[in-house]
Write a structure and sequence with these properties.
two-stranded antiparallel ribbon, alpha+beta, single chain, 3 domains
Length: 234
Amino acid sequence: MDTIAIIDTLNIVSAIPSAVIEVAKADDSFRFLGIKLINNSDFVELLIRFAFNTIMIFLVVHFMYAKNSNRKDYYFSYLSIGVIVFLLSFLLNNVKMELGFALGLFAIFGIIRYRTDAIPIKEMTYLFVVIGTSVINALANKKVSYMELLLTNAIIVGGLWLLEKKLMMKEEQSVQLIYEKIENINALNHNELMQDLIDRTGLDIKRFEIKKIDFLKDVADITLYYHTNGHVKN
């Protein structure tokens, strides 16, 4: 009985390679204009990598950028660029591009860059992180294990979290205003002036500079400097 079972098992194992070949032939048979309708392994890899990259980009944009800078004006752009760069890199990974086509892609990005407003340094850094992460996740070949890819993304997200939360790398911005309580424009009333500015603006003001004083109109031009990360004063 055991001998028969062993023979049957050997027959099944020997039939596996032929079954795999038949499935591959079946996949090759479904073509339209010379192009496969679906490549099972590549399609599954695309879905897994796309889901993984989208999660990583969302963590960077939503929990690192938007939460710490209290700004969402680049939210849509970061997510869109992350998706497009990933798909572009993944789908063109195995395509042999000529020099003219490659230069054309750079020209498109150059035109977009020169026709937009100047991007602050921190926003430009996050843009580079989003693009770099998408390219890494898309172009990592079979020599890079999934654990190595996961560790690389964890280092990126963890590094941003460390800079934003622990090292408190805050971006300083300024705003100018006209202040009418001229009695507070005095070196002896520095604390009163600071508290009044905080109460009025709600900003986490770190310092201020008095640019101009007009005693005829009883007003002063003041520049306030505050941190954009968590700038609302509790």
